[in-house]
Amino acid sequence: MRITHQTTNVKSNQTKELNIVIAPDSYKGSLTAKEVGETIWKAFSRELEGAQITVVPMADGGEGTVEALVCARGGKFETVWVTGPLLQPVESRYGILGDGDTVVMEVANIAGLTMVDEQKRNPLHTSTIGVGQVWMHALDRGYRRFIIGLGGSATNDGGLGMLQALGAEFRDRTGQSVKPAGGSLGIIEDVRLDLLDSRLKECEILVATDVTNPLCGEQGSSRVFGPQKGATEDQIRQLDQGLAHFARLLEGDRGESLQDRPGAGAAGGLGFALLFLGAKIAPGAQIIANASGFAEKISQADWVITGEGRTDHQTLYGKLPVYVAEVANRHGAKPLLISGSIGPDVEPLYRHFVSMHSILRRPMLLEQAMKNAETLLYETAREIGRLIRAVEMDR
Q: Listed GO molecular functions (predicted)?
């Protein structure tokens, strides 16, 4: 289901009829992708009379994946209480798409980094058990097709917690079940994978992630993503060794190596566990775009607007705004970026965008910017709408 808006005013003599597609990611922790798109639409509608403006909420496998796919494909949300990243009860949700057969889940709202206070972040103690619990909830309701977004996790347990929730047993040298957290990986001595829920063999699993890292090593999940999840240098080494041990146990049972496959290191190694269960991994932005018919929607567009919470040099490496810009450029549309903030080293991004804009119009603290993000975005989008109007008037 697309969200299409056309201004109801009579076409102005000062503006040409325009076709604009707004396809943003969320401003994480502040505005959902739908809220970002709707805010820009309100601002453009005020400045660009007669323009056809289509809002296509996007995501790349992280926060907003469930909402973006439900908006794109129709469907509904299912609310469920599960065990959160710190092993506490949390309310989460997943989506059931309009086909009535496909479930979409996102780790960000089950075991997400934003769900853990900064001072409590420690991937030795966080768990993916809730991911398995959501999965079981959907299995019990008869669903067998799954899209799982892996971005934004607080975990580094290799999917240990998820596998335990799905029925597998992992015991230490004393025969006790290990705690479902990253710190347990290195003490596992006995594995019972034959106890996994048999319904998993009936499942089709598509994993959405922009991460291509292997499970272990210098480019692995612990080394690259551990610090942002609160891991110290000593903890990074412990987690990396634990993941290697965990992988050997699972691969020994399976008879093939999965830990070096692209995406195995996504979500603290959850990608590895999902590969073990037979999942296929694909770029998150591509999955959302295909599901929403994004390429078709921009085929007649003059301008395509995208953005994210923070744009920096990492945006070049598989992030959603660049994907949107590449598709827009292929269709002859002009891509423009509006993000919460823009960091250093973004010069190479000008290869993709006509221009890039931050909504920060004056000096302020991060907390202030996030609290006032909607107003700041609206003000900035109005200015950009006026600029687009001036450009189109000169044609």
A: glycerate kinase activity
